[in-house]
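Format notes (please read before filing issues)

Several people have asked whether sequences and structure tokens are stored in separate files. They are not. Every record keeps both together, in the order shown below: the sequence lines, then the token lines. Line labels are part of the format and must not be stripped during preprocessing.
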Amino acid sequence: MHIAIAGNIGSGKTTLSALLAKNFGWQAHFEDVDTNPYLSSFYEDMQRWSFNLQIYFLNSRFRQIVDIRKSGKNVIQDRTIYEDAFIFAPNLHDMNLMTSRDFDNYKSLFELMSSFLQPPDLLIYLRAEVPTLVRNIQKRGREYEASIRLDYLKSLSERYENWINGYTEGKLLIFDVDNINFQDNPEDLGKIIERVQADLHGLF
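Then the structure lines:
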């Protein structure tokens, strides 16, 4: 069983991944941010490092999905490969932070990789308004995220909504994190767990 959690920067993906993995006794596969050699450089100069960063994430997430399928274990994944391809890379291109040449190269690689992939059995989307994202980003205090622009977050949010509205790859659950606090409120976490369990029973 493969559950993936999607959402904008600061929506709570990593926190919910850890909480659900603990509750269900499943493995959690987290996004590679602490050892990513391009992330801090990217936030300092997005135009220079956008292609490098997206290729790194594409490679990292493809390997992660291959490992998930090979393991045969129940896994919760923090962010999907689809978000890189349908949200982050095209957003950088449209903001003139990635050249058309690099973007076309990136799309070609993704199309090849995606032909070998299976989508997650259940996708959980964490919807959040920009003020919520900013508050969470400030709360966790990653130095390289301090320079994230508001227009960048807003543009990503719009792309997330468009992607989710057209998502047909499999089962989908949406949680509005502006109105719930699953990190600090056990009742809110319990409601999420109940809904996830209900959907999982339909997958076995």
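For reference, the curators noted about this record: The mean pLDDT is 91. Strands lie at 2-7, 27-29, 75-78, 122-127, 171-176.
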